[in-house]
Design a protein that fits this description.
The complex is a heterodimer of chains A (59) and B (415).
Chain A (H helix, E strand, L loop, with lengths): L1 H10 L4 E3 L3 H9 L4 E3 L10 H9 L3
Chain B lengths: L4 H14 L2 E8 H4 L7 E4 L11 H13 L6 H9 L4 E4 L18 E7 L5 E5 L15 H25 L2 E2 H10 L9 H16 L5 H12 L6 H13 L10 E7 L2 E6 L7 E4 L4 E4 L12 E2 L3 H4 L14 H4 L3 H11 L3 E10 L5 E7 L1 H7 L5 E6 L7 E7 L3 H15 L2
Parallel strand pairs in B: 2-3
Antiparallel strand pairs in B: 1-4, 1-6, 4-5, 7-8, 7-11, 8-9, 10-15, 12-13, 14-15
Helix pairs in contact in B: 3-4, 3-5, 5-7, 5-8, 6-7, 7-8, 13-14
The chains are: A mainly alpha (59), B alpha+beta (415).
Chain lengths: 59, 415
């Protein structure tokens, strides 16, 4: 069954949501694939010290 | 964590939304502002000493001392300013706000506003116009002469007209102006017109010289920024109502003195968090360039703190001709501000966004979490004292003061 699902995936159009590096989305767009680029960044831009402070506030 | 931050922020936002900023009088700084003294100068932004003041603020102090008759020349004024005889305090410590240098001296006329919901008051000088003006650091004889005319003619006539008219609801007026293409910080053309429309009949009925009345109307009409000095105290008495709420991370002050940018947080009392003021990215008047500019300066960012100004730029696409960018940028600025605010305004609405309320009550935690800094539009002063305005543009506040404030907030509420 699992094998069938994977095979099916390769035969249908891709539905892609990209988070993070925008170049992944751009490469797919260059191949005429529709991609939704999420406007997402890690909390505090990845600053670990600030992220730790936010965590103490339950964020 | 010791507190319910969500509940505290909802309370702060609710106080902002229920505030009713109202113009009740015109007085002088000496008479109206609590704690004002003849040798005290109020200025924009967080506290700053004469030694650390930027050029345009020094220029405005020099002009202020000359206006008060405390100095007869630039040299005398500079000597007195540095002597220790003059006390410098932020406008914000006195319920006041001042655009650009924000210099407010004893005899200057001030608008007096009251938040009718909470009873707190706010104060702001009257707007001088653009270009070579005191708030941008100019102090030439014509600058001082204009300020004297404003104290001797403009303010008394407007006061008399206002008393005949009765109090003016600033919230209703700002709300109308946003429907007419203003955003309340660097575009105030509609609101200025609305004030003229309200007061003109009462001005012309005054038992005063017709030419004097005509000059007052002409002065207001020629200055599209006239209403700025009303939108600012309107936002000041509005946001002040949200100060001092235990557990709230809502930003209740953003202000700059040309040296430092500073913020204060509702749940952290009167404490300032500062970082060096940043440079403005803008459009320059003919003959000036980026090298001439002083860093970001002024209390006018109280408008953004109150949910208008840069936060309402989608309402004012024409502003991009003054501050740079394209109308799509103006819409984008407003849209991104919803990411860092607690609520949407129930009175200030943006036609181009299907009358969505402006993003209101900036949450420090959301700013730090998303890395989206408040969108601010602003004027640009020349870096040297005595010159004046050189342009206008957009500016990003320094991230550091938000990080420092968050650290203090966590220390207090989640030790």
């Amino acid at each position: 069954m699992a094998e069938n699902k994977i095979t099916k995936l390769f035969t249908q159009d891709l539905v892609v949501i990209n988070m993070g590096l925008e170049s992944f989305a751009e490469n797919l767009q260059a191949e005429n694939t529709e991609v939704l680029q999420m406007n997402w960044k890690p909390p505090a831009g990845g600053n670990k010290q600030i992220a730790a402070l936010l965590a103490r506030l339950g964020r | 964590m010791k507190i319910d931050m969500e509940k505290a922020n909802q309370e702060a936002a609710s106080r902002i939304l229920s505030s009713k900023p109202t113009l009740i009088d015109i007085s002088t700084a000496g008479r109206a502002i609590p704690g004002m003294e003849k040798k005290k100068i109020l200025h924009a932004g967080p506290p700053v000493t004469w030694e650390r003041m930027c050029g345009p603020m020094r220029g405005a102090v020099i002009g202020g001392l000359m206006l008060e008759g405390l100095a007869g020349s630039r040299e005398e004024a500079e000597k007195l300013a540095a002597s220790g005889e003059i006390t410098y305090e932020p406008c914000h410590h006195h319920g006041a706000v001042g655009p650009m240098a924000g210099v407010t001296t004893y005899s200057m006329p001030v608008w007096v506003l009251e938040n009718k919901t909470f009873g707190n008051k706010s104060y702001c000088t009257l707007n001088e116009g653009l270009g070579k003006v005191l708030r941008y650091g100019a102090f030439a004889p014509e600058v001082i002469a204009r300020l004297k005319w404003m104290a001797d003619v403009l303010a008394p006539l407007l006061r008399a007209a206002l008393h005949e008219h009765g109090e003016l609801d600033m919230k209703a007026m700002i709300s109308q102006a946003l429907q007419m293409g203003d955003e309340g910080h660097n575009r105030n053309r509609a609101a200025t017109s609305l004030v003229i429309r309200e007061l003109a009949p009462y001005l012309v009925r005054l038992d005063e010289d017709r030419e004097k009345i005509a000059k007052v109307l002409e002065f207001m009409n020629l200055n599209d920024h006239f209403f700025l000095n009303l939108s600012m105290p309107a936002c000041k008495c509005t946001v002040d109502a949200a100060a001092g709420i235990e557990g709230s991370s809502v930003i209740t002050t953003m202000a700059r003195n040309g040296t430092d940018f500073g913020i204060r947080i509702s749940g952290l009392g009167e404490r300032w968090f500062t970082a060096p003021a940043t440079m403005v990215d803008g459009l320059y008047l003919p003959g000036y360039k980026a090298e001439d500019a002083a860093p970001d300066i002024g209390d006018s960012v109280i408008t953004e703190t109150g949910g208008i100004g840069g936060f309402a730029m989608a309402a004012a696409p024409a502003i991009v001709k003054f501050v740079g960018g394209a109308p799509a940028d103006a819409i984008r600025f407003t849209q991104s501000m919803y990411e860092i605010t607690v609520t949407e305004n129930d009175t200030y609405q943006i036609p181009a966004l299907d009358f969505r309320g402006t993003p209101t009550a900036i949450d420090l935690v959301k700013v730090v979490e998303t890395g989206i800094l408040p969108a601010i539009n602003t004027g640009i002063a020349h870096k040297e004292p005595g010159i004046g305005m050189v342009g206008a543009g957009l500016v990003k506040p320094p991230e550091k003061c938000f990080h420092d404030a968050l650290e203090a907030f966590v220390e207090k509420y989640a030790p």
